[in-house]
Amino acid sequence: MKIDGVNAMMPQSGGTGLNQAMDSVSKNLQQQMERLQKQMQELSSNQEMDIEEKMKKRQELQKQISSLNQQLRQHQIDLRRQKQQEKTASSQQSSRKSTREDSSGQHGRGMSQEGMKALVSADNAIEQSRVQGSVAKQMEGRANILKAEIKQDAARGADTQKKEEELADAEQTAANAVSAQVNTLEEANSSLEEASKAENPEEASPGDTEKPDTAKAEDSRSAEHAGPQDASIDVRI
Residue 55's Cα: distance from chain center in Å? Predict the structure, then answer.
């Protein structure tokens, strides 16, 4: 997982307090990932660690980077959802005011059915992603316990085959949960985009519509150039 790929997901700074808050948290997460990436680069020149120790350390750092990257994406979606909800509340307030001033109600409107449906879909997707993230953490925890037990059993000369099979299942379940979580977060982001477009069609300029695709393209290129050392789990973000 390349840190360069994180830049494609970083939110654009704006003039509102919401965007500033988002930028502050996102910047903090990115700095943490950059520090971890630097530690990974320094492993190659570390003469005090053998190859096996370096591999284990690299995997630990990669998992931390992956977790931070997930937090960054989740944070961006949460902030985007909050912003959309604030727009909706403002639109509804404007609609009520316009209705009082003009019985035709042409100067304002509440949230459309399409926008409401998209927002509900995003909420459901975000909740589902949290469940998937919880499953991944549980399985990763179980995998760590099994690794320790296997090491102890092997030292005593005990049979470890059964636990090794359970370990493989736990790691696969964790990887599947992480992959599903990424897809779910993408669905949530897409739903929020639909909600925003449904409520503010006049704001969708050609430049705005190109940004998501550009970000995805950059992210995809980053993932394609990432070698085996760049991701502990086969997940493309």
Answer: 25
pLDDT: which is higher, 6 or 189? 189
Residue 75: closest CA among 36, 129, 37, 118:
129
pLDDT tens, residue by residue, 126-165: 888 888 888 988 998 999 999 999 999 999 999 999 999 9
What is the rounded radius of gyration, in angstroms, for the C-alpha atoms of the chain? 23
pTM greater than 0.70 (yes/no):
no
What secondary structure letter does DSSP report for 233?
A: S
Distance CA 40, CA 23 (A): 25
33 and 68 in contact (C-beta within 8 Å)?
yes
| 219/71 Cα distance (integer angstroms) | 16
CA distances from 87 to 33, 83, 196 (A): 32, 6, 9
CB 39 within 8 A of CB 32: no
By mean pLDDT, which of 76-90, 104-118, 164-178 is the weakest? 104-118
Read off the amino acid at residue 195.
Answer: A
Quick: pLDDT tens for 33-49.
999 999 988 888 888 88
The two structure tokens encoding residue 229? 């050392």
